[in-house]
Design a protein that fits this description.
The structure is a homodimer. By secondary structure, the first copy, chain A, is of the alpha+beta class. The first copy, chain A, has 15 helices and 18 strands. In chain A, strands 1-2-6-3-7-17 form a six-stranded mixed β-sheet, sandwiched between helices. Chains A and B meet through strand 9, strand 10, helix 8, helix 11 and strand 11 of A and strand 9, strand 10, helix 8, helix 9 and helix 12 of B.
């Protein structure tokens, strides 16, 4: 296979990927909004549509998987689609490809220039809900796989390819982890490929190499058992709001570093090379601050750039706090209680449960002298993930991207985390983020679009990817 | 006049003070609840009742004063009663006596052992709403004045006596300051006597010598113009909640002292004598903390006792704070805004407006790097008041108390302030707190009572007071 051959194949067959009932346009006509119960039937139709396409491409195994109640007895969730195509090569690595076929709601509808479920092509843009997030990015793999087979003359992929496309990503992936655990054996793989992300910008193709993890909690402080008159008692009894202010202010030192004991112990430091690569990205910080964040300044840990702060450094962030009198006018009380919600973004190799223990110790220091301090975590948290720059699978993905884009591939990270973190966690495999979205594709917003030339490049990347990954020795 | 004569007079005429239509029992039958619009007529009846009694005692001038809308055009408030009895002695000092004739609501009614407006005597206790707060403490002055005249053989009081008894004290005295300002000339005096307080305890008669002042504000911090995803932005943009925590935590140093520049500059330090007198008070700190405050500990400014902290030291107290996500579950955002309500208790000679300027400077330090910080005060604040222990009027009141109680009189202060602060401020006269309530009279609670023997002692104090004050040279 040559780069030229793949490009040619993808150009020649690109219309089939996009047009008609069996193309992206047909899929985008199905309003598979997972957050709306009235669209549950559409999400099912969307799953069936994809299953039919996977069969048409040649996957010998294609199944629609129901997702269910926590005890698995009755399906209550929305279906995922599973497919598998074993490689003829018995030594081939196993890859599990992740995407989702449900879409975001469309409100506010009046801001759409074309109806969200009537896909419309204008120049190089195809407008429609789900165009890039994530139907387009799932579908380019089908053309990519066909190109891979056609240009290599193979009758099966160079890797054993498993596909899992869920139907609840836009409504919190509530059943996804359970689904992974239930089907852990069938989904087992050497590498996970996630196609649900963007490149840095149109001129800067890139691969995301890591996502921050998360753990979050609510902190409750209890002081006097009744609201006290601040004239009669103020100055002599502990005020839970003042103690909460101390507790929250104490989370950071003057350099913006988190003060919790041991918080940074496991943090993988940024390598000089990665910092250098981040610094070379054409990051428009002014635009990011003033137009994207609608903020009027930046603030964070001393010694790190904005990209480093959001991608590669852990945080403690106060998400909410409340207590005492919050109505109009004034009420001069020493209140009974103070509350705060605090979340911690984590980076490799921090362990959420270890961080939780450290946070408990920190909060316990405020449990004294008339203040009862408790902390409750919302769950086990989400592990951060990171694929080291030198990882052979990442290098393979980089080569595939380079061949398709004809450019140097840059590396980014993501500041948050999605259900993909569960993939790494349950399947204990590295995650490669291979996506071709653009930052201005308006995902989750009116007038979502996919740029058709990016979609074709995605197919070309996919066509190269299986060959490149096949060359990586199984770990 | 002799002490014995006054005591004998008060004993002989005590029944007239208490019993029947024209006694305290009759007044307590009028449910003059100022907070309930449906009782407005009762508050008016209560004012007329008192006016009739003042006329019966001999006051040549008795007027019911309407309180009104802010422009004074129409009466919207509840009436106060004014009376004046000039002394025949042209050089006599002028005293304005303050009390209130409205009462607290009675909920929860089911906790009353006797109906709140059916005054009931059990032993030495007279139960009923308003028995001590404040009808009993207003009424003992009438018997006291009669005893004063009878035992001195005078036909007018030894001081020119003015009486102002308001009808809105239990609902915030909303029209009281305006009333004082409108009638500033007619209420002008050398000394204000307030009868609406308690003694330290039954065995420890005392006089309150000062009240803390107050100013309060709302602080608002604004950060990003939209709630931001803490994964994508957290760690790199200013978080208004974290900044608010810094701001509030920074209000105090490690010793519990307020850090605002100049905050203590005008504070009158406690004298060694006053500290010594406070320390000798039979203060049950354990009971105060655990039974009254329902707290589990004390906390405050280093180097001061609990009584010193609540009576004689200024404070900064967070009364409320809120911002970000405060619902169930979690929402990992960097929020747009943070808010807090903060009040400052002030002691002599702090000036509320000066403190406000200092607070504005403090808050302004947080107005930077993407955070807009504003502070709004609810009004001009309330000045603290303090009668120095050596003040001649205070010594006169002390002698009157000593003669009635036959004991050493101790000195206390109050941590808060009521409408009495406006009296000192508008009339620019020192305030004497002459009250005989007991700490366990259950004011504002079910089963409020007045101890009849305390009421008689109050009349005796009043009978002595005008003679003692007449001996104080006019300032």
């Amino acid at each position: 296979m040559t780069n030229d051959a793949i490009e040619q194949y993808c150009r020649e067959h690109f219309d089939e990927l996009v047009a008609g009932e069996n193309g992206l346009v047909g899929w985008l006509q199905i309003p598979s909004i997972s957050a709306s119960p009235e669209h549950a039937g559409d999400v099912r139709r969307s799953a069936e549509w994809l299953a039919a396409r996977l069969r048409a491409v040649g996957f010998p195994t294609v199944e629609v998987w129901e997702t269910g109640s926590l005890d698995g007895s009755t399906p209550e969730g929305l279906p995922a689609v599973f497919a598998e195509w074993p490689s003829d090569d018995a030594d081939a690595p196993v890859v599990t490809l992740y995407g989702h076929h449900d879409v975001q709601p469309v409100d506010p509808l009046e801001l759409w220039k074309t109806p969200p479920f009537e896909p419309t092509i204008v120049g190089d843009d195809l407008f429609g809900r789900g165009a890039i997030d994530d139907k387009g990015q799932v579908l380019f793999h089908l053309l990519g796989l066909q190109a891979h087979l056609a240009t290599t003359g193979r009758t099966s992929p160079a890797v054993t390819l498993k596909v899992i496309v869920e139907g609840e990503e836009e409504s919190g992936s509530v059943h996804f982890r359970r689904l992974l655990e239930d089907h852990r054996d069938r989904l087992a793989c050497d590498v996970v490929v996630v196609s649900d992300t963007s490149v840095f910008d149109r001129d800067t193709p890139s691969i995301c190499t890591g996502m921050r993890g998360l753990t979050d909690c609510q902190i409750d402080l209890h002081g006097p058992d009744v609201d006290l008159h601040s004239g009669s008692f103020g100055g002599a009894v502990p005020n839970p709001l003042a103690v909460m202010a101390d507790l929250l202010a104490g989370l950071h030192d003057a350099d913006g570093r988190v003060t919790i004991d041991g918080f940074y112990d496991r943090v993988v430091m940024l390598s000089d090379r990665e910092r250098e690569l981040f610094a070379k990205l054409p990051f428009n910080e002014h635009g990011w601050v003033h137009e994207t964040a609608l903020s009027r300044g930046t603030r964070g840990e001393a010694g790190y750039s904005t990209l480093e702060r959001i991608w590669a450094r852990p945080t403690a962030e106060v998400n909410g706090m409340w207590g005492g009198y919050t109505g109009p006018g004034h009420k001069t009380i020493v209140p009974t209680d103070a509350h705060a919600k605090v979340s911690f973004r984590l980076v490799a190799d921090q362990e959420p449960l270890e961080v939780q223990e450290a946070v408990k110790d920190y909060v316990a220091r405020y449990d004294r002298d008339g203040i009862t301090a408790t902390v409750t975590f919302s769950g086990p948290g989400v592990r951060p993930c990171l694929t080291p720059l030198g990882h052979p699978a990442l290098q393979a993905a980089t080569r595939a991207m380079e061949k398709a884009f004809g450019k140097e591939i840059r590396y980014t990270r993501e500041g948050g985390s999605g259900p993909e973190a569960d993939l790494a966690d349950v399947l204990t495999a590295p995650v490669l983020f291979v996506g071709v979205g653009l930052p201005d594709d308006r995902i989750h917003a009116p007038n979502e679009r996919v740029v058709l030339s990016q979609l074709r490049l995605g197919a070309q990347v996919a066509a190269h990817l299986w060959s490149e990954l096949a060359e990586v020795k199984r770990t």
